[in-house]
Specification:
This protein is mainly β. About 5% of the residues are buried. The protein is built from no helices and three strands.
Length: about 60
């Protein structure tokens, strides 16, 4: 039995993402069509939900 994972869409240009089996919550992925970065916020029971990735703040990494 194969479980299909629903393909999420870019929140900017509405292009479907090719879901990777190794995606994990918190991972950042980029839309191949427009380049917008998205964060994986949920991956459970065949559902992958994305949100816009947070912008890098000036003080990150200090």
């Amino acid at each position: 039995m194969t479980t299909a994972i629903a393909a999420p869409k870019c929140l900017v240009c509405d292009t479907e993402f090719a879901v990777q089996a190794d995606w994990e919550k918190g991972e950042i992925t980029e839309c191949a069509a427009c380049g917008q970065e998205h964060e994986v916020v949920q991956k459970t029971d065949g559902l992958v939900r994305l949100d816009l990735a947070p912008e890098i703040e000036e003080d990150w990494g200090e």
